[in-house]
Design brief:
Aspartate Aminotransferase, domain 2, 3-stranded antiparallel β-sheet
Length: 418
């Protein structure tokens, strides 16, 4: 199981990594001495940050060790913390929610619409005096309704966070995702568009946010430090640094991105066309087929019973039963389990005193539940049990395989569709 980038690892990645290994210097910072900078330092992390910032049409990028770290650093950059609420979809990877929790803020779950992303109307209904931000998650390569969500955020003086972890390379109305909100976060683990095994990135146009996110990811240091810099650290941080080896891999992957997305979109277009005339079958709403990453084709069946039977025959699962991308399956969230009995966010006294008392339960998002129960994810390039995309094709499959998978799906679905 993997994403498209993992399937394309080859000589380009090997050569980039060998450059670092031959130089013999693996740390993300060069060391300045009386004789100048260490000549072994390749600066791959810094180069990657600059290239992704330029590609994303923003001024700043901070490479971190995971998408979760990117989300956490992004929210610290915004000053989100105890007593705050962040609205997030009930269909998302659990990291979107856990990152909110570990700032000390409280996740507020909202419904998705037929884009399988945040429903702007339900977001409006979930805003309270404690709401600090909206987290738009671009699930399965397809951008959320950013124009509507940004309007809601602006009207209510809220931050808009873009969780772009599953959609690196996508765009929205001509702009790269991650550049529309106040801050964007990417992931580069093996299930994502391109990969360095693990890793993430924070992007923003806000210099102060960038400096705060950078300080948080590196023990409080200011950007691009050259030494210990005693006395110049704005606050205590953690260590979420990315390494030169990871950056070397991702630089090679980044060059493959345009061709990779073209392949994904071509395969998805063929598969979708081959299924389009099935009676009763519908597809997830994609805002612009030319701007999504196209890693997954989501089909919607008339009933949950039909969807379950089709999925079982394909040795797959409906999305509702797939795994930890669905709030109903997050038992640690539903039971508000934390490492210690008393901790922010859920039991934070400041939150309770301000009138908050968040509860989570199965079935609390009925429209989301209905949609996920009737839907099946077909892999175009991401095969992930956590998304239920075991059936489908890979980035390396040709169009004959796409046609064969389409015929298999048609044969199975015909047993249950009238």
């Amino acid at each position: 199981m993997a994403g498209p980038g993992m399937e394309l690892v080859g000589e380009e990645e090997i050569e980039e990594v060998l450059q670092v290994l031959r130089a013999g210097y693996l740390y993300r910072y060069g060391i300045s001495t009386a004789d100048g900078d260490d000549p072994r330092f390749q600066g791959k992390v810094y180069q990657l940050e600059q290239e992704i910032a330029a590609m994303s049409q923003v001024r700043y990028a901070v490479a971190v060790n995971s998408g979760t770290s990117a989300l956490l650093a992004a929210m610290v950059g915004l000053g989100i913390g105890p007593g705050d609420e962040v609205i997030v979809p009930g269909f998302t990877f659990v990291a979107s929610i856990s990152a909110i929790v570990y700032t000390g803020a409280v996740p507020v779950l909202a419904e998705i619409d037929r884009t399988f992303n945040l429903d702007p109307e339900d977001v409006k209904a979930k805003i309270s005096p404690r709401t600090k931000a909206i987290m738009a998650v671009h699930m399965m390569g397809n951008p959320a309704r950013l124009q509507e969500l940004k309007a809601v955020a602006d009207e209510n003086s809220l931050y808009l966070i873009e969780d772009c972890c599953q959609a690196f390379g996508a765009a929205y109305r001509g702009s790269p995702i991650g550049s529309i909100g106040h801050v964007g976060a990417f992931s580069f683990n093996i299930y994502k568009t391109i990969t360095s095994g693990d890793g993430g990135m924070v992007i923003t146009d806000d210099e102060e946010l960038y400096r705060r996110a950078f300080a948080f990811h590196d023990q409080g240091h200011s950007p691009l430090r050259t030494g210990v810099e005693i006395g110049r650290r704005p606050f205590l941080g953690l260590d979420f640094r990315y390494t030169e080896l990871q950056a070397a891999v991702l630089l090679a992957q980044l060059r493959k991105l345009p061709g990779l997305i073209d392949l994904l979109q071509t395969k998805k277009r063929h598969l979708k066309a081959a299924l389009a005339d099935l009676p009763g079958l519908a597809f997830r709403e994609v805002l612009d087929a030319e701007e999504e990453v196209a890693t997954i084709l989501t089909v919607i069946l008339p009933t949950a019973d039909i969807a379950r039977k089709v999925a079982e025959d394909l040795k797959s699962k409906v999305v509702a039963e797939a795994g930890w991308h669905v709030y109903n399956n997050m038992e640690h969230l539903l039971e508000q389990r934390m490492p210690t009995p008393l901790s922010c966010s859920f039991s934070c006294p400041h939150y309770a005193e301000s009138g908050g008392a968040m509860q989570y339960r199965k079935g609390m998002l009925p429209r989301t539940d209905d949609l996920l129960a009737r839907s099946i994810n077909i892999s175009i390039g991401v095969s992930d049990a956590g998304l239920g995309s075991a059936f489908g094709v890979t980035i390396n499959d040709d169009l004959d395989v796409v046609a064969e998978r389409a015929e298999t799906f048609r044969r199975v679905a015909a047993r249950y569709l009238n």
